[in-house]
Amino acid sequence: MTGRPGLRAALRVGDRLRLDDRLHTVVGLSGTTVRLIDEAGTASLVLLSHLLAADGFEFVDQGEGPPRMPPFALLDVVPKQEAERAEAWERHVTEVEFGRPVDASADTAPRPEYDPAVRTLQEREAAKAAELSGLGWKVSAVTVRRMRKRYREQGLWGLVDHRKTRLSSPTGRADGRVVEAVAEVLAAQVDESTGTRGRLRRRVEALLIERHGPGVVPMPSKSAFYRLVEAVSAGTHAFGEATSRRSQARRPQGVFTPSSACRPGEMVQIDTTPLDVMVVLDDGVTGRAELTIGIDVATRTICAAVLRPSGTKAVDASLLLAKMLVPEPMRPGWADALAMSATLIPHARLLGIDARLEQAAAKPVIVPEMIGIDHGKVFVSDTFLSACRSLGISVQPSRPATPTDKGVVERTFSSINTLFCQHVAGYTGSNVTRRGERVEAVWTLTELSDLFQEWIVACWQQRPHDGLRSPFLPGRAMSPNDAYALLVARTGYLPLPLSGQDYLELLPAVWRSVNDYGIRIDHRTYDCVELGPLRRRPSGVDAKGGLWEVHYDPYDLSQVWVRDARTGQWITAPWTHRHLVSAPFADFTWRRARELLTLRGMDDTDQAVVASVVEQLLTRAETGPDRRIAARTRAALEPARPVAALAPTPPGGPDSQDDEEDTGTDPPSNVIPFGVFDAFTDGSRL
Length: 686
Known about the structure:
Elements: E1 16-19, E2 22-30, E3 33-38, E4 43-47, H1 48-53, E5 58-59, H2 80-98, H3 121-134, H4 141-154, H5 176-188, H6 197-212, H7 222-232, H8 242-249, E6 268-282, E7 285-296, E8 302-308, H9 314-325, H10 334-339, H11 347-353, H12 356-359, E9 370-373, H13 382-390, E10 394-397, H14 407-419, H15 445-458, E11 465-470, E12 473-478, H16 480-491, H17 502-505, E13 509-512, E14 519-521, E15 524-526, E16 548-553, E17 556-563, E18 570-574, H18 587-599, H19 607-619, H20 625-635, H21 654-665, H22 679-682
Parallel strand pairs: 6-9, 9-10
Antiparallel strand pairs: 1-2, 1-5, 2-3, 3-4, 6-7, 7-8, 11-12, 13-16, 14-15, 16-17, 17-18
């Protein structure tokens, strides 16, 4: 089978063309260089490739110019009968054009009536029209000429009857006013509860009557209306789940622009979501925790993760920032943790269940340059924004109700659900339709946090990520650790993290005076020997009236840290009644205890009485909301405090004396410290 003879265009000397809004004449050809002379007689040399690619270039004398390739793939959608008819037309048209059909061999002689050497084009067209009319085709010489021209321009595709290839309208022959009303009503009920098509029909009828008058616009039949609705509402979840419908409506209308970064820390996205796992908070109270994570866009590294009970605070966001910037080996108390020296848990068992002690030092530390946030009150708080501002981190808020602006962190939450949560006892599923008949919470929040941190180090950071690929190795998916190593080598520098003392800077601060009895915060007194030189003396900070800067952890009010304005050193001051409370407690627990005393008509400023109520809440939580308050307090604590605390003073009494005797005869084994956790009084609660 031969090709299309004679259709190859050529550029010859003497051809005229239009370039840069001027007429040019080809006066010379040398290799791929074309010599042109314009109307003013100015000569120029142009490469053929540049000439053909120039804007506004066109042939003047050659009517068609270079032929265009036909859309071969579209021929597959042509009905078989129409495709056979187009192929038949191709044989007739090429015979008129070149003297022999397209499928004839090169040595085939033209028929006399189609021989270009003796017959003009008009004579050949008339002969072909007469031949086809004799075969029963209703064609004229004009039809043959039109088909010949279309074949020169579009090839076989130009010979197809395009009435058979027209795309059908998704709305059929429905009245445009009805289609417009259906689309308008569907858009108006995006945020409403899901209704039926019957409700939609009634609303469309009311809208048409209001806009055009009664009986002006006829409504289609019920079945035709439902087909119309199906076509207009395709992909909108108009009659499906309301959450999916709202999510679909919030997608950007323009082109999706993926978040991209070229170096670690260039863009970090943070967000909070409820975790799909039921956990045991305390005394049998169960609930779902909130997970706050920060993920690096360039390497997909989970920079830090914080698990908290429901109600994440701004300080939790600051704590997340501190975990990003201060690696665990540099945090105060890390050396003591490795020494295994202050609890009743044998260190061999801890090393077996806590892989972070061995691998956390190798986890990449991402120093963010920009943080992407949503408009949650946690992330737009003064505490978090001030911390970012002081560290030179720019904050980029996403558009309201546009989760696609933080697509990486949103997708990471989905991956956490499929790769981690569904394998954890107590998994609830993403919604009630996916929930099992009986979901039992097994893990405490602290234990779940340990599992999650270990999963990040051992699984997520070492698992190949399909979205992490090098352009030099496109067939190999890299893990976050691999991507971090590659990008650090490419950027040529490694950002240094903050020091351990900077960890305290991200905690909230208050300003107080140091009196003879110590420091008073919300009717709690903190004191230690190191505060002696500061008592009854101004700090020298005139802007704060000579008060001293005190930092505290809202989830552990058993100690505070005072900055000595003269030396810049931190002083750890424990609560004077800490020995009355066997476990750390949060600020909301303290406030609730004072509320209970006020309701009972008791003095809520008596620290000893308040401490006993706090202890009661933590050990034998009362029914109702008080049980949840105690549970949230215990669950909010981490297994290892970031700052080493002072050794607690054991309460007096026979119990402490017995403990001293036991200590003298049977020294405890080397273990990991748990901050202000009193091993001698709380060991039985493990």
